[in-house]
Specification:
Helix content of chain B: under 10%
Radius of gyration of chain B: 13 Å
Radius of gyration of chain A: 13 Å
Number of helices of chain A: 0
Structural class of chain B: mainly beta
Structural class of chain A: mainly beta
Largest interface: A-B, 24 and 24 residues
Order of helices and strands of chain A: EEEEEEEEEEE
Distance between the termini of chain B: 38 Å
Strand content of chain A: over 45%
Strand content of chain B: over 45%
Oligomer: heterodimer
Number of strands of chain B: 11
Number of strands of chain A: 11
Order of helices and strands of chain B: EEEEEEEEEEE
Largest sheet of chain A: 7 strands, mixed
Number of helices of chain B: 0
Shape of chain A: globular
Helix content of chain A: under 10%
Chain lengths: 110, 112
């Protein structure tokens, strides 16, 4: 089954404690991206990757890092999380006109 | 960030009634318009991808139209059912660089 898998689904953490949200896809897609979703706002792109070792900033990259060492994985790293990064995060992969999303990671930073 | 607007933000529909809502997007540099259906705690699910002015797509009781010249798309739900309750997201695809700009969504609640 074609899918994008994110882990964890839910996470509560404290300010400043580094965390990583993993994302993996099994469709051999070159393009992957991370979004955050906040109430009243559309999904906003954080970072994207066009291929292995190729990443670039989206619209709201501050406070986040990513890496793309393998085609299937695209982890999102918060080096020093802050409360304003409390949000719902989605990973997506895409080929052509089709985009597939993970189930989301709800992150709370206290 | 490109301006993509959806209206209304939410609506309540009686079971069996039909409804529609709008996605507005920039009319220049159009490549595609995507509609997704998103239920809480699930992945957004692709409904339609529309690329041509005048496109009409249909999936069961849900259909969509596209006007690229004036920059809007309508999503229609005919004979709403409780299982249609979800947030419907549209995303503007301005060029083939894979970057989508999303609207904030229209949340539909169908009352039995």
């Amino acid at each position: 089954e074609a899918q994008v898998t994110q882990n964890p689904r839910y996470l509560i953490t404290v300010t400043g404690k580094k965390l990583t949200v993993t994302c993996s896809q099994n469709m051999n897609h070159e393009y992957m991206s991370w979004y955050r979703q906040d109430p009243g706002l559309g999904l906003r792109q954080i970072y994207y990757s066009m291929n292995v070792e190729v990443t670039d900033k989206g619209d709201v990259p501050e406070g986040y890092k990513v890496s793309r060492k393998e085609k299937r994985n695209f982890p999102l790293i918060l080096e020093s999380p802050s409360p304003n990064q409390t949000s719902l995060y989605f990973c997506a992969s895409r080929k052509g006109l089709e985009a597939f999303f993970g189930q989301g990671t709800r992150l709370t930073v206290v | 960030i490109l301006n993509v607007e959806q209206s209304p933000q939410s609506l309540h529909v009686q079971e069996g009634d039909s409804t529609n809502f709008t996605c507005s997007f920039p009319s220049s540099n159009f490549y595609a318009l995507h509609w997704y259906r998103w239920e809480t705690a699930k992945s957004p699910e692709a409904l339609f991808v529309m690329t041509l002015n005048g496109d009409e797509k249909k999936k069961g009781r849900i259909s969509a139209t596209l006007n690229t010249k004036e920059g809007y798309s309508y999503l229609y739900i005919k004979g709403s059912q409780p299982e249609d309750s979800a947030t419907y997201l549209c995303a503007f695809d301005p060029s083939n660089d894979y970057k989508l700009s999303f609207g904030a969504g229209t949340t539909v609640t169908v009352r039995a």
